[in-house]
Amino acid sequence: xxxxxxxxxxxxxxxxxxxxxxxxxxxxxxxxxxxxxxxxxxxxxxxxxxxxxxxxxxxxxxxxxxxxxxxxxxxxxxxxxxxxxxxxxxxxxxxxxxxxxxxxxxxxxxxxxxxxxxxxxxxxxxxxxxxxxxxxxxxxxxxxxxxxxxxxxxxxxxxxxxxxxxxxxxxxxxxxxxxxxxxxxxxxxxxxxxxxxxxxxxxxxxxxxxxxxxxxxxxxxxxxxxxxxxxxxxxxxxxxxxxxxxxxxxxxxxxxxxxxxxxxxxxxxxxxxxxxxxxxxxxxxxxxxxxxxxxxxxxxx
Length: 301
Hints:
Layout (H helix, E strand, L loop, with lengths): L6 H7 L5 H14 L15 H5 L15 H5 L9 E6 L2 E2 L13 E5 L7 H6 L10 H9 L2 E7 L9 E7 L6 E11 L4 E10 L6 E11 L4 E9 L4 E11 L4 E8 L4 E10 L5 E8 L6 E10 L4
Parallel strand pairs: 1-5, 4-6, 5-7, 6-8, 7-9, 8-10, 9-11, 10-12, 11-13, 12-14
Antiparallel strand pairs: 1-2, 3-4
């Protein structure tokens, strides 16, 4: 068991994919430190217990507890839906429907696309690691993630579900996963991202960073549903970049987690961008749910 960052973890991280990004992210963390309640944007949300807790080594966490039975047990999954599975931050190719994707969309492990030209053009370009230290932590320690690319003028009518499961054998796990979604001009799709716990005894910290690029005249709806158990904590940073005449809608629904902190930043970087942000929070007891939203009108409407 270990804390979030130590010298051993730093040494292991820079041997993983995207090493230069990790090095920059570690430098950013060293400069900023972790947020405390003395920071204006965090004055109601303390991360002290999360940061000081012990976790299984981030690059040694197992990711083989989830089976097809766990997927089929979900009542909203129907025949014909596309299901992509992550476990403890890792892409589960064996459980993902990557071979039956509809025309116009590609979905694969982010680690496998380190040298992809589209990934090079967009990955980590919109993440404010100098402003959001927990996004910097994700960048430094990311285990894997998902790269979704939607072709120009492609209209994806099938339901696309991205399921992230946390699992453990008695030890708390810290998971750092990424999503890069690039919707080319004229495309349209609806993506649902759900976070779930393998069992009611799974203890986890999920640190998730999402980047969504909505090109000219593209239309993306993104459903983000957080339904982990009450032994889990989740911190998310989502960055959306929109071009001219694009449409984006996000529906964030939070049920689970002991602590949830969602940071959402939208950059409307051209004329006639349309953005809709909806949310539903259904908490009880001692759950803490904290949402921060930033909308940048970079260009006149």
